[in-house]
Design brief:
Blueprint (H helix, E strand, L loop, with lengths): L1 H31 L2 H11 L5 E5 L2 H15 L4 E3 L2 H4 L12 E5 L9 H9 L4 E5 L5 H5 L2 E4 L15 H21 L3 H7 L3 H6 L15 E2 L5 H11 L3 E5 L5 E6 H7 L9 H4 L1 E2 L3 E2 L5 H8 L8 E5 L5 E6 H6 L4
Helix pairs in contact: 1-7, 2-7, 3-7
Length: 327
C-alpha cells in the first residue's frame, strides 16, 4: 500500500509539473503578444481565398486542429501536408489564399517548397516559430514568435509546452478573426448542425408546438373545463389569453395543487393563474430556452413562445429539449 501511495503521489507531482510548465509558457506567450499579432490577423482576414495551414510532425497535428478551428468559425481553411505539397499538393494553394506555417525550429526541411511557393506567387505567409533567425521566420511576411519556455518532459525534448503554445496561438488567431467578422451563434450553427452543440443552437421556432396543439384558454374559463383542456393538451399547463389574444397568465399543475380545495371547480381560470409568465421569442436559441427553464429561483418545464405583442405563437416543453439533445 505504501508503494502504491508513493506512486500516486509521484504521478500527481509529474502531472502538476507538466501543467505548471505549460501554463507558464502560455502566460509568457500572452505577455509577449504585440503588433505583429495584429498584422498576422490583417493578412489572414484579407485573404480572398482560404487559409492554408501546414506543419510537420507534432506541429502538423497542431496545424490540422488550427485549420479545423478556423473553418468551423467562419474562416475557410484547410490543412496541407508539407511533404505531400512537394509532390503535387502545391496545386491546392492558389491565388487569394494565405498560408499559416508552423515549425518550432523554423528549419523544417519539408516546408521549404511550400514556403518557396508562397514567395513565387506572392501569397501572404504567417509563421509560428520559436526562432526569430530561422529560415521560416526570415521568409514570412509576419513571424509570430513563441517565447523561450521549457518543454514539460523531464528530458526537455518531447514537444509539449511548445505545441501547447502553438495550439493556443492558433486559437487566438481564430477567435480574433471571428470577432472581426462579427461571426455569431447563428453563423456558428451553420457549421455545427450535428450533435449536442448543433441542437443547442437550434431556434425555438424550429422546435415549438403551434396551431391546434397550443393549450390556451380565457381567464373566464370554468375550472372544470380548464382541467379537461389541460389534460387533453398534455403539456401540464394552460396559457391564459385576454380578449386581445395576449398572454396574461399561465395555469400549471403546480397552480392546481396550490389552489386545491372544495370550492376549486366553482372558480374561474383567471382567479388561480400565475400572472406575467416567463416567455421566449421564436428566434431565440434552444440553449437560451433551457437557461430560462432552469432559472434557479423557479425552474419550469414549459415556455410559451410569443411575438412582440405577447400573443402566443407556440409552446416549448422540456421534453422537446431532451428529445433533441439540448438538455
Amino acid at each position: 500500500m505504501t508503494a502504491a501511495i508513493a506512486t500516486l503521489a509521484r504521478d500527481l507531482d509529474v502531472a502538476r509539473d507538466v501543467l505548471a510548465a505549460e501554463a507558464a509558457g502560455l502566460a509568457a506567450l500572452a505577455a509577449g503578444l504585440d503588433a505583429g499579432f495584429v498584422r498576422a490577423v490583417d493578412l489572414l482576414a484579407g485573404a480572398a481565398g482560404r487559409i492554408v495551414v501546414s506543419g510537420m510532425g507534432k506541429s502538423g497535428h497542431v496545424a490540422r486542429k488550427i485549420a479545423a478551428t478556423l473553418a468551423s468559425t467562419g474562416a475557410p481553411a484547410l490543412f496541407v501536408h508539407p511533404a505531400e505539397a512537394s509532390h503535387g499538393d502545391l496545386g491546392m494553394i492558389v491565388a487569394g489564399d494565405a498560408v499559416l506555417a508552423l515549425s518550432n525550429s523554423g528549419e523544417t526541411a519539408e516546408l521549404a517548397d511550400l514556403v518557396a511557393h508562397t514567395r513565387r506567387f506572392g501569397l501572404p505567409l504567417v509563421a509560428i516559430t520559436a526562432r526569430s533567425g530561422s529560415a521560416l521566420a526570415g521568409a514570412a511576411d509576419v513571424a509570430l514568435l513563441l517565447p523561450t519556455a521549457r518543454e514539460a518532459c523531464p528530458m526537455g525534448l518531447a514537444p509539449t509546452t511548445s505545441t501547447t503554445m502553438q495550439m493556443a496561438l492558433g486559437d487566438a488567431l481564430a477567435v480574433a478573426l471571428l470577432t472581426r467578422r462579427g461571426f455569431g451563434a447563428a453563423d456558428f450553427r451553420q457549421f455545427h448542425p450535428g450533435g449536442k452543440l448543433g441542437a443547442r443552437l437550434r431556434r425555438v421556432r424550429e422546435m415549438m408546438h403551434e396551431g391546434e396543439a397550443l393549450p390556451l384558454a380565457g381567464p373566464d374559463t370554468a375550472m372544470d373545463a380548464a382541467l379537461v383542456l389541460m389534460t387533453s393538451k398534455r403539456f401540464g399547463c394552460l396559457g391564459v389569453v385576454d380578449g386581445q389574444g395576449r398572454l396574461c397568465g399561465i395555469f400549471t399543475d403546480g397552480d392546481l395543487r396550490r389552489a386545491m380545495g372544495p370550492a376549486l371547480l366553482g372558480r374561474r381560470l383567471g382567479e388561480v393563474m400565475t400572472p406575467a409568465p416567463r416567455t421566449i421569442g421564436p428566434e431565440m436559441l434552444a440553449a437560451e430556452a433551457l437557461h430560462l427553464m432552469n432559472a434557479p429561483e423557479r425552474p419550469i418545464t414549459a415556455l410559451f413562445v410569443v411575438d412582440d405583442a405577447q400573443r402566443p405563437l407556440g409552446i416549448l416543453h422540456i421534453h422537446d429539449l431532451l428529445r433533441t439533445g439540448v438538455a
